[in-house]
Amino acid sequence: MPTKCTVNVDLVDIWEKRERKGELIRTLAWGDEVSVVKQTGTYAEINAVEFYEQKDGSILPRKRTAFIEPRKSSKLKISDILIPKNKNKVLKVNFVDVQQGDGSVIESPQGKVILVDGGDNQLFARYLASRFRGTTKAKPKEIECILVTHGDADHFAGLPEIHESESNPNPQKRLFIAPKRVYHNGIIKRPSAKPNKKKRPDAELLGATKKKDGKLYITGLEDDLLKVPDKEMNQFFLKWKNALKEYNKRKKVSFKRLEMGDDKAFSFLDDEEIKIEVLGPLTEKIFGKPALKFLGTPPKGPRIGHESLDVGELNSTGASASHTINGHSIVFRMTYGKISYLFSGDLNDEAGRILTREHNQGTINLKAEVFKVPHHGSADFSGAFIQSVAPIVSVVSSGDENARKEYIHPRATLVGALGKWSRVPEPLVFVTELVAFFNVEGWARVTDKAKDKKRGEFFSFSRTAFGMVKTRTDGERLLVYTDSGNVKMKEAYAYALNDLGLLDPAVVVRA
The sheet that has 215-218: what strands, in order across it? Predict the structure, then answer.
C-alpha cells in the first residue's frame, strides 16, 4: 500500500528511471503530496502523474511509476526530501492565471482550501479540476470558504463554471465541490437597464441608498445571496446565485457579508495558527444601519505624482458604481508564523488612502511580505498604500484577451511604485501574463468555412505554460516559483528569517 508523504525541500525532480536517468518527467515543490511505493536510503519509487499532449493539442494526465533520487553532490537523503504527510507544515498559495481577472487558491497544511475570486471564464474551474482530480457528486472536494472580494464579473463569473463542469463529457475536466461558506462584500449589482429598458443610473446600480451630510451611502447591503430577488441581480450575479442554490440543496452553505474586523469568520483556521484579519471594506453607521460610502470618479491621468492631490476627497466627482464596488473590495491579511500575505481585490486610490490612514493610526496593519496587487495593476492606486504594505513579493493578475478588455495592465507607474516602496533593494514583481509561456505553432487556417472568408490564414501560438505564481511557506521560510516552457527550468526564489526575524534571500534547494 503506497505511503502518503510530503515534499520537504524547495524543488524535487521526478525521473523516468533510477539514478536520475531517462526523461525528467516533472518537478514537484515544497509541500506537494507524493504517493510512495518503495523507499530506501538513497531513492524513492513513487506513483507519479505525467502530463502528455494529444494529437489535438490538449494536455491530459496519466499515472506512471517514477523515481526520486537526489544528486550525490547535494548530500541529501530521501528522509530529508520526503516526510510523512501528517508532519506537513507548509501553507500553499497559488495565484492562478485566469487572463484578465483574479483567482487564487489558499491551501492550509491540513488541506483546508479557500478560493479567493475565480476569474470570468473556465480557466479557474479547469485548473481546480486538474488539481483536485477524481471528485464525484458523492465525494466532492470540500471547500472551507469561497471569498469573492467584490462583484465585478472578472472576479467571480468563473465560479459558476465549476458547477457547470460537473456535466463535462471529459472526466478530467469535471469538478464537484462542497463549499461550506461564501463570503462577499455585500454589494449586489443590479441589471444595467430598468424594467422600462432605460439605463439605470450609477447611483441606483448597487442597491438602496441614503444621503447624510450631502454624501451618498449604500445601505442595502446583503448577507444571504440566496435571499436576494432575481430581479435585483445582474446576469452574472444571477448565474452565481443559481449555482449556489444547487450547492445549498446538497449541503447547507453559510453566507456572510464581511467588513473590517470580521476576523472570527476565519476561526476554522485557528487550530493551524493561521490568522486572517479582515481590513476592508470599512462600513459606517447611517441611520442605524451599516453602510458603504458611494465613491466618485477620480481625476483622469496621467497620474504621476498623484499623491499630491487632495487627501480628503481625492478630487473625485459624482457617484461612480465601478469605483465604489472596487474601492469596497474585501481586503484581508493572512499571517502564518512570521510571513504575511495581503489580498486587496480591486482596491483603488481613494479607498487605499482610507485604509492607509487606518494603518497610520495603528487601527490595522497593512504590512505584508507577499502582496496580491490591487486591480490588475491599474493606474488608480495609492502610493501611500503600497508604501504601507512594503512588499517583498508582489503579484499582478492580468492578461490580454481582446481590445474590449484592454486596460494597459499593469501600468508602468504601478510597477515602478512596487519597486520603489518595497522594503528590500531587489523586490520580486510577478505578472501572470508575463510568466506564461507561448510556443510558436506557425501558420494555421480556421476550419470553419464561414470564418475562413474573414480570417483566412493566420500565424498562431499556443500557451504551453500558464502564468501561475506559486508560493509556499512554513511561517519562517518563503518559496516563490513559476513554471516555464522548459520542464527543466523554474524561476524560483527563496527567503529565510534571519536572527532579527527579517527575511533574507536564501538558496533554493533542488533535489
Answer: 209-212, 215-218, 289-293, 284-286
Residue located via cell numbers 468563473? 158
Name the nearest CA neighbour of 28 among 43, 45, 15.
15
Determine contact, residues 208/218, Cβ cutoff 8 Å.
yes
Secondary structure tally for the chain: helices H, strands E: 10, 31
Distances from the Cα of 351 to the Cα of 316, 326, 355, 391, 497, angstroms: 12, 9, 6, 19, 32
64 Cβ contact partners less than 8 Å away, ≥ 6 residues apart: 25, 47, 48, 49, 50
| Cell numbers representing residue 80 in the block | 530529508
Domains and CATH numbers, the chain: 3-87 (2.30.30.40), 91-188+198-432+467-475 (3.60.15.10)
The strand pairing partners of 469, in sequence order, are 95
Q: Are 85 and 35 in contact (CB under 8 A)?
A: no
Are the C-beta atoms of residues 104 and 95 closer than 8 Å to each other? Answer: yes
State the Cα–Cα distance between residues 339 and 301, nearest whole angstrom: 35
What is the pTM for the complete model shown? 0.94
CA distances from 92 to 33, 114, 471 (A): 12, 11, 6
pLDDT in tens, the chain (511 residues): 899 999 999 999 999 999 999 999 999 999 999 999 999 999 999 999 887 777 766 677 788 999 999 988 888 999 999 999 999 999 999 999 999 999 999 999 999 999 999 999 999 999 999 999 999 999 999 999 999 999 999 999 999 999 999 999 999 999 999 999 999 999 999 999 998 889 999 999 999 999 999 999 999 999 999 999 999 999 999 999 999 999 999 999 999 999 999 999 999 999 999 999 999 999 999 999 999 999 988 776 555 544 434 444 455 557 899 999 999 999 999 999 999 999 999 999 999 999 999 999 999 999 999 999 999 999 999 999 999 999 999 999 998 777 777 778 899 999 999 999 999 999 999 999 999 998 898 988 776 665 556 667 788 888 888 899 999 999 999 999 999 988 899 999 999 999 988 999 999 999 9
Compute the distance between CA of residue 27 and CA of residue 492 in angstroms, rounded to an integer.
12
CA distances from 47 to 65, 109, 127, 339, 465 (A): 5, 21, 21, 33, 23
Q: Which cell goes with 431?
A: 505578472
Distance CA 70, CA 507 (A): 16
CB distance 124 to 116 below 8 Å: no
Cell of 84: 510523512
Extract the C-alpha cell encoding 436: 506564461
**CA 135 and chain centroid, separation:** 22
Name which of 362, 209, 191, 334 is nearest 272 in CA terms.
Answer: 334
For residue 379, give the nearest of 342, 416, 353 by alpha carbon.
416
